[in-house]
Amino acid sequence: MPNIRRKQHLGLIGMLLIAVAFAGLQLTAVTGRASPDTKNYLSYALSLSGESRQEAGRRAIAYSCASGQHASLSPVPWTNRKAVGESEEQCVRRLNDSVAYWTRHGNTEGMTAPFANQRFMAIFEARPGYPLFLVPFVTVLGPTWGLWLAGLVIALAGSVCVLFILRAAGVSRRAGLAGQALYLALPTGTVAMNPLSDGLSLAFGTVVLLGCVLLLRDRPRTDVASGTSTGVTARAGAAGPRTGAVLVAGGLALMFLVRYSQALLLAGALAAVFLAWSGRLRLKRRQPGPVLRAAGLCGALAAGIYAGAHLLGWPMGQDSAQDLLTHHYQRPDLPNPWPEFFAQEGVFWSAWLRRQAAQPILPVLLALSAWALLRRRSVVLPIALAAGAAGLLNQAGHPNLGQLYGYRLIVFLWLLPALAIPLLLDRPPTDSAPHDASRDPAGAEKRSDKPAHAAPAPGGGTSGEVRHPTSRS
Length: 473
Description:
Helices cover 63% and strands 1% of the residues. It is built from 17 helices and 2 strands. It has helices at residues 2-26, 38-48, 53-68, 88-104, 118-125, 129-168, 173-185, 187-193, 197-215, 232-238, 241-283, 289-311, 317-325, 338-358, 361-375, 380-396, 415-420, and strands at residues 455-456, 462-463. A hairpin with a 5-residue loop joins β1 and β2. It is mostly helical. The two termini are 14 Å apart.
């Protein structure tokens, strides 16, 4: 018992050390992260905190222009780039002139300041979740430190969820900590720190993935005498399908308020992957019950997200295509935007592939993820594949060459290496019978010393008593 508690304390210490190290590194860039869209979210948050629309716009402009003076000029993908030669005063004057222009041309309503035409600003009006999250931070600490601390909370929350996902799937403590560290070191951590809605959407996405892991397994039996029911990761590992369903539904509901298009793509990708998985199980004459129920839940939530956005009158796919092709609605709409939109897709992805060939960081990480997919069988892998597909689909919906050097639209793809590569740190099962993920999607080990309490596994058949994930060191 004392030895188990000591190992749990070591795991908690490891998690905290990773978080503290990341926070310390982020202190080197408290400002300089703002993008052109940051001022839209900040003005929305300041309006929610009680500022007038004009004052909220003025403060958002001041922050954005001051941040631009500290932005990097390097075209490194995860850094911001500023316009060369523009001073802070010139930036403030330019944005104030833009606000005055669009106010004169009818943009006089809404929570965001009139930085552009009303149709373009409606995109940000349809994302109230992130500004609402920012309110306590910017109210107490002001824009600079408030946005920085909000980003830090978002990044650390997502990294801890990745740790919980891996531990709930039965991997070792070291693999779970490696997943947390990878999440923070990869562009997932950088995007989470940027003052944009993508990071909060990503954090809620990790909550959804954690719920999916819990949905696809029976609740493990914990043994109080052995100490496996104590500790934060232990309690996460002991949660069952009901908790998983709550996390999936709640995570997608919150994502809907933050960035509903990404929530729709994630729910749809998960439903498709689970449906394909259940079909594979049927071909093998195994019961696909839990997997099929997970597909049904995600599919129903995807339909609900689409219906909710439509009923609220939020911009949809057609609006996104017109936004791209008319330079934020400053030119007349195209009668049929899709031929030109798909031509843009070809241009963007050919340029994207050339960039990956020139700087093959992502291809190498995806190759390692594929190796993990072939070497290990775990419920994490199909869920990570669905998250990666959601990232690719999100980028495909915005084939803008201006995003070629950035990772924020495709950031869900980086969850695949963050979740898959840590599995390589664990040894493959050494049982005499090969481990079958379809019989135990959580990838947990079975004890051979206690045959009692056999329960149906999510993929069919029966499994012995599931060893609690936190019993591994």
